[in-house]
Amino acid sequence: ETKVTSEPKSNGMTNGGARIVDDDDDVLCPTDLSEMLAEGTKEAHDRAENCQLVKDFLRGRIKKELFKRGTAALYFVYSAMEEEFEKNREHPHIAPIYFPTELYRREALARDLEYFYGEDWESQISLSAATKPYVERIHKVGDKDPVLLVGHSYTRYMGDLSGGQILKKVAQRALKLPATGEGLNFYQFEDIHRHKGFKQLYRSRMNELELDTETKERIVDESNLAFGFNLMIFTEIEEIGRNIKEEVQDTGIGHSHAEIMEGG
Length: 264
Ligand code: HEM
Fold this sequence. Notes:
By secondary structure, the chain is mainly alpha-helical. The chain has two domains: 1-29, no CATH class; 31-248, Heme oxygenase-like (Heme Oxygenase, Chain A). Helices cover 59% and strands 3% of the residues. The chain has twelve helices and three strands. It has helices at residues 33-40, 42-49, 52-58, 64-87, 100-103, 106-117, 121-124, 131-144, 149-174, 195-208, 213-243, 257-261; strands at residues 3-5, 19-21, 27-28. Strands 1-2-3 form a three-stranded antiparallel beta sheet, with no helix packed on it. Helix 1 packs parallel to helix 11 (213-243), helix 4 (64-87) packs antiparallel against helix 6 and helix 4 runs parallel beside helix 8 (131-144). The longest helix is centred in the C-terminal third of the chain and has 31 residues, at 213-243. The structure holds protoporphyrin IX containing FE.
């Protein structure tokens, strides 16, 4: 899959001249921030992907109430991230990855919440216990150590651009949402036409940031922290799901409600 050649990179190498080329012919370098992030968050990604809520979601077993709560949590998270991005948009470590038109999700989430909760959606949602520390952390780093926003941005936006289209289809089908995309604006990046191409641009922008190794490592740690916060929200929502009664949407014929609830 991955081949290593001894050809040095033309702009001088920091890793002894090993050049790694992946399937897409992108040049990979283990000291590139994008590589450090991909490698350094693999385990956290596995944990997120394999938690019960996500597994249920991928199987189309979604309760609308839980989907709404997830959307509300994301609204608070993206509001915090995008507020801090605005404050720091001229910071030399933020400006190169500042893509408000392409990436910002706050308004899309607001439209989704209006669809789910109605006009007075704002009075119907609140910051959950698990979402609060995530939001507080984003504000803290935005205030005290803005370079760490790179880790937050990576964890959410790159994830949204990776799995988003699949999740959109799953949700649309399971929740029987209209084909017009109402309620699913979050998943639709109107100003990004090729997700893969944009992710490549974003990676190269991250790699061009002038950062020492220690700072890159702190960004990876911050990204892992963000993964952890996301997992906490999933766990919280999963727990709420255990305590509410709502017929799952995608039931097969011949299963009792109890069986489905137990995963049988
Ligand atoms: C990348 C799937 C959950 C964050 C990816 C990729 C896939 C994927 C297939 C690889 C895309 C590529 O190689 O270009 C999934 C699935 C999930 C899930 C099926 C379960 C629903 C999450 C969650 C987060 C996340 C919960 C974080 C909150 C990321 C990030 C990347 C990524 C940051 C980019 C990795 C990189 O290229 O450096 N995901 N993911 N994912 N995902 Fe997920």
